[in-house]
Amino acid sequence: MTTPYSTTTPPVPARFLLLGDSHAGCVGRAAHQAGLPFVGGPVGSGRDFLGPFVDDVGGDLEFRDARARRLVRESLDALGVPGFAGLGVPLVCTFGLSAHTVATRQNWDIHRDRHGTVPERFLRSGLFGDLVRASVRGALAFYDRTAALGLRVLALMPPQRVPGMSDPGVFFAAQDVIGAELTARGVELLDLRARVTDGAGHQRPVFCQADDTIHGNLAFGRLVVAELLDRGL
Fold first, then answer.
1. What are the backbone angles phi and psi of residue 39, rounded to the nearest 5°?
2. How far is it, in rounded angstroms, from Cα 44 to Cα 14?
3. Contact 216/209 with Cβ under 8 angstroms?
4. What spatial distance separates the first Cα and last Cα of the chain, rounded to whole Å?
5. What's the chain's average pLDDT?
6. What is the side-by-side strand order in the sheet with 39-42?
7. Which of 134, 137, 114, 116 is nearest to 126 (CA)?
8. This model's pTM is above 0.90
9. What domain of life does the native source organism fall in (predicted)?
10. Does the structure show a pLDDT above 90 at 213?
């Protein structure tokens, strides 16, 4: 299984705050291996960050889940800031990009044709976009708030791995809808698809965690870290 990685005690000033689901784990491991100081790490599972998960409290963000709130608080304390409003380093996130959860097969059965396929015309429709946006409304609200606070936010497109529980067509179409919504909110997308996928758009084995069906491995994390460095982090 993928082991989440986090740190809250960088030896030198942190270059970024990492928050997200388990997909943030390989980024943390790669950053640690590269000696790139950061704080944070995974604070929950992907499905925890699709519906509403933060509140606006006193002009700042507070996570609803007690464990996530504690982990985030520890990271902010390590950075020496009282809240997100005082954050002086970029925020690297995976919130809302659990495309395999959004693409859970049974959620889309009503839209299948007589061949059992979700039609391309539906995947390109306004209705599909509305349904995806509703599915990740909590994450979109989070990024609305980070934009209002003037934070620099970078979000990682998910590993291109579609488990058996998920519909591939929905997965690929949904992540594009989500990515466009994040871009519209000023989020910088870390999109490595052209570098890690095969001709069918699936993640190549060299970038896949060997013992599960959804995560990227350390090699994938290294590419993310290289991209962060290229962007000045």
1. -130, 160
2. 22
3. yes
4. 29
5. 94
6. 39-42, 17-20, 91-93, 153-156, 188-190
7. 134
8. yes
9. Bacteria
10. yes
Contact 4, 24 (CB under 8 A): yes
pLDDT digits (tens, 9 = 90+) for 98-124: 999 999 999 999 999 999 999 999 999
Return the SS3 of 104. Answer: strand
Homologous superfamily of 17-230 in CATH?
SGNH hydrolase (3.40.50.1110)
- DSSP string for 31-52: HHHHT---EEEE-S-GGGGTS-
Instruction: State mean pLDDT over 165-192.
Output: 98
- Closest Cα to residue 41, out of 100, 94, 97? 94
Write out the two tokens for 50.
């699709």
At residue 12 the predicted structure's pLDDT band, cuts being 50, 70 and 90, is confident
Domain boundaries, the chain: 17-230
